[in-house]
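Let us work through a complete example step by step.
Step 1: write down the sequence.
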Amino acid sequence: MKQKILEYLNSAFGLDGSDAEELFVSYVQSINENVEKLGREAAAKDFAAVAKTAHSIKGCALNCGHTEMAEAAKAAEFAAKAQESGPLDENAAKISAIGKSLVEELK
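Step 2: predict the structure and record it as tokens.
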């Protein structure tokens, strides 16, 4: 996934080398923080907070061309707005798994 994101950053914004790497690291850190936050909010069934955090994740992912994360975040956002626990939990788990795989790519 890292390579795909780096390629997107290059094609969309002309970033390469250390500039693209720096943005990728920043993206992963932001996602990691928001994934943890989303997990706490989903566990508490704080639907309004989940919708806001999922929206933030979606925007961050779209800015980096990470469509898989953006789609899961969009689904979580809509599930939270509809207060649908099942789809929310499913997509929160998907977001968490994607986030963990991103963190692994930093190692």
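Step 3: interpret the result. Residues 2-106 form a domain with the Four Helix Bundle (Hemerythrin (Met), subunit A) fold (CATH 1.20.120.160).
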